[in-house]
Amino acid sequence: MLGKAIDVYSPARIPANKVLVRHGFMTLKCDTQGYRCGWQRGIYLGIFLMKTFSNSERISGLTLALCAAFSNTVWAQNAPTPQATQLKPVVVTAARTDTRADELVSEVVVIDRASIESNAGRTLTELLSRQAGLQLTSNGGLGKYSSAFVRGTESRHTILLVDGVRVGSATTGAPSWDNIPLDMVDRIEVLKGPASALYGSEAVGGVVQVFLRKGVKGLQPSASLTLGSHSHVQADASLRGGDGALSYAIGVQRAQDKGFSATNSKAAFGNYNADKDGFKQNALNASVSYQISPNWNMDAGLLYSDSVNHYDDTLAGDTRAAVRNQTLHAGVAGKVMPSWTASLRVSRSNDRSRDIESAYMPSAFDTQQDQITWQNNVDTPLGVAMFGAERLTQKVDGSTAYDVSQRHVNSVFAGVNGAANGHSWQANVRRDSNSQFGDSNTWLLGYGYAINPAWRVNASYGTSFVAPSFNQLYYPGFGNTTLLPEKGKNLDLGVSYSANGHSVKLIHFDNKIQGFISNSTQAANIPRARIDGWTLGYTGQFGPVSLHANVDALNPRNELTGQQLARRAKTQVSLGAEYAMGAWLLGGHVLSVGKRYDDAKNTLVLNSYTTVDLFANYAFNKDVSAQMKMNNVTNKSYETSYGFNQPGRTAYLSLRYTLK
To answer: I need a surface site. Which of 144, 388, 412, 453 has the fewest CB within 10 A?
Structure first.
């Protein structure tokens, strides 16, 4: 889906695509492009805004008649008149403060709830890979180990946040992409480019922040059921509500999939087994928010996701592993003075994996990350000044003995971002004191200028660093205690055009990494790695037809040898379209990925591939909808990791209910 329906509730502001007008039992909400609107329960702003929209209902969609018999969740949408106000989305990840997307100096992509719902049967990394500048690898099917490469950087070069909480493994140093229940997600913000000056170590390629569903005014129950290929069954239910100062949300989900053989005959170490490698998951999320006073609010939340995953170990046996991800957070925020907002937040995340059955010696890994963040935002003549401090504690435990099993990072940070008269700017600095590696200083400078209402240019330059993970330092037979942190420098240049329902964006990036850590037979620092390239993106609206296209061209390489960095394609093309036809929304997506190599020496080839997905949504009424989706329509056989299979043709039928 192309809409960007961000669900942010704040009495102090109305985000660009928030609910605007209530009319009877319906409420008008604009998306990020400002030219499509969806009917949802929300915030009353004024009946006078109704005059800016036409009365004819429409839904943005894709012209693929093959989907005419399919169905899915759909939002009834109205077309604005040409005079309708063009509203812009508000995002928080790019500057750690609420900022209009059209005033950012960095590139941010917002994936809305509708897009998530239209990707039944997909994982988080598969959903991300349909965005410009992101590629994926997966070791076969739901729940299997996967990676997301942002602009050609490593998976461990991206921070994953769930409601502001770091989610990842300190042993691998990479985010935990595989166990996030998508049906509990409200929206996702993807910040591309170096963000160490904002978030510290690992933010070389960017930051992916997942926002779970939160409370709303009134009472809103919802439920969905999805059935699909490989005996796939997923059911979830949630209740969101609020009255006065209190709002809350709770949701549960259960999913199971018998899967397919994750490996094939090319798998290393004889790990190929032709049986089905299934996946089961139980998940719970809950949040509560309470307005203590007109100026102060407190909130808390949790995500608990527990799964059992099968993967091949030998020709005759499987390993069955239990994987658990958990996040907890609580905080208080409010106004110290009319122009000064402060917040204090504590959080914990756990990433645990243990073998229930194993063809070899059973193993267990347990990562815990505790974080305390104090942040202040002050309105100044130069914009919003932001400053604060953090303490991060990482602990590892399990069946593998590490020479060091705990480290601390104490950080201070500051920055300012603002906009006036077509100019926008951002500056950030940060100092991280790591108990193992000492002090690291990072910074970011960015500037943007709106030449006229349609054309805008921007540029930014930033530094980054990555501390080696516990596996890279201490894992037996692989770790290297002499490793040094990676240090990077990145230049971003962009130009964009947006007018009359059409947007085009061209971005050039150049990321130079000193001491790049190679994960071959033993972890080692490579003197220099460089990833530079271009991204060209387009979104457009032609009446009931919405189109989007992205082309990525990059050159990820070891500068010492000239060899291509593993598992990254030099080219990737993503195309999508949607077509509205009454209560129907028909759509499809094409993803084409170029040739890659699975190893640093470029001897194991991963061939190029193209996949086609189709979907159709049907809205029975404002509360009930259905979807049918077919992924990989051509049944393309391909690999993103050498020796590991990817899903063939799969189909899913979903029924959704949400009281609006």
So the answer is: 453
